[in-house]
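User: Sequence recovery, please. Input:
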């Protein structure tokens, strides 16, 4: 039987994935401690869970330059094959308001709540030993699933005005996880941070109407990804990055300039220079307020922010 320590060694997304395989309900919006307590009460169903192993970082060998080859003569164009639909409905299982889909290493698990689609698990690499699904495929499959659910409101209880909610968190096995980059990615898809839900669940929760998500589905179109169609206009990246910094700054003020906020700001090294300079000023204010100059030397802070 798994112990508390063994359960706590896994990300909450992994624990939710395990619960979804049982008939236990009502866990979607639980915090990790609540999830752990729920699983401990049902130990017999999770006897296979062991302590999570930390995978050592693999050093990728440098690729050797490919030898120059003579260009082959162009072949006659073959007749275009009919493409199979990306969404395989035979793999889509919906039972007792829980949706499961696994195909071609794409895995999607969601809860169909009262007028809300809550995305629990979403990955294009369900099996770490198998190749990742082709670029954009997981996103396109998710779009097709949403469209499929909208066809029958009486059955699934969803329409375009319904809420689409997800938790932006780390998935077990993710390398070089960066919360700020993930937040920025969801914001480019029209999601906004749900402050009330985030505070209540102690997680980073994003939401938007389903209609907004459907509009963004074009970004995953195969022809757009291959360059055959023009890319749709994305929100101004400066605006997105400033919004993320505004959210962190608000948290800094509410916490009374707690030192822990510095680490969130130090992760913004990939932002544009004006936004990194904003982050530096906030860090300097925290250091001055908490008198932690020796703990966070300005030279090291600037180096982390690439300034």
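Assistant: Recovered sequence (307 residues):
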């Amino acid at each position: 039987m798994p112990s508390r320590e063994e359960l706590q060694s896994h990300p909450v997304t992994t624990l939710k994935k395990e619960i979804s395989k049982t008939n236990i309900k009502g866990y979607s919006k639980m915090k990790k401690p609540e999830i752990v307590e729920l699983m401990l009460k049902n130990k017999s169903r999770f006897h296979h869970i062991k302590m999570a192993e930390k995978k050592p970082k693999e050093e990728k060998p440098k690729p050797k330059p490919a030898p120059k080859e003579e260009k082959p003569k162009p072949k006659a164009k073959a007749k275009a094959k009919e493409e199979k639909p990306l969404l395989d409905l035979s793999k889509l299982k919906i039972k007792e308001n829980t949706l499961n889909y696994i195909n071609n290493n794409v895995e999607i698990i969601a809860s169909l709540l009262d007028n809300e689609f809550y995305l629990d698990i979403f990955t294009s690499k369900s099996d770490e030993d198998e190749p990742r699904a082709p670029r954009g495929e997981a996103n396109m499959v998710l779009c097709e699933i949403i469209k499929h659910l909208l066809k029958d409101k009486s059955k699934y209880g969803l329409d375009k005005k319904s809420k689409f909610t997800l938790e932006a968190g780390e998935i077990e096995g993710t390398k070089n996880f960066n919360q700020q980059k993930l937040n920025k990615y969801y914001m480019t898809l029209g999601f906004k941070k749900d402050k009330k839900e985030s505070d209540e669940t102690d997680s980073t929760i994003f939401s938007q109407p389903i209609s907004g998500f459907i509009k963004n589905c074009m970004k995953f179109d195969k022809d757009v990804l291959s360059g055959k169609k023009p890319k749709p206009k994305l929100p101004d990246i400066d605006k997105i990055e400033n919004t993320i910094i505004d959210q962190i700054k608000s948290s800094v003020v509410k916490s009374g300039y707690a030192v822990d906020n510095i680490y969130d700001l130090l992760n913004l090294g990939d932002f544009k220079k004006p936004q990194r300079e904003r982050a530096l000023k906030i860090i300097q204010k925290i250091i001055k307020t908490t008198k932690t100059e020796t703990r966070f030397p300005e030279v090291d802070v600037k180096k982390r922010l690439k300034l």
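The chain has three domains: 4-46, 85-235, 236-307.
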